[in-house]
């Protein structure tokens, strides 16, 4: 029972952290155009695939 409670609490913590990251992301990238956002997303995918291949 105690372990379930800890897992639940850690899930809440993760959600709180993700919400803070999302807020920061929105502030940083609010001024970008949709094309700039698509380019960043493409570059991120490429970076991930290159890291996976290495």
Automatic annotation (TrEMBL):
GO terms for molecular function: isomerase activity. Keywords: Isomerase, Plasmid. It comes from the Bacteria. This is Topoisomerase IB. It comes from Bradyrhizobium diazoefficiens.
């Amino acid at each position: 029972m105690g372990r379930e409670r800890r897992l639940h609490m850690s899930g809440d913590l993760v959600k709180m952290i993700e919400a803070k990251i999302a807020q920061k992301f929105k502030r940083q990238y609010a001024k970008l155009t949709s094309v700039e956002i698509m380019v960043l997303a493409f570059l991120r995918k490429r970076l991930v695939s290159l890291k996976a291949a290495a």
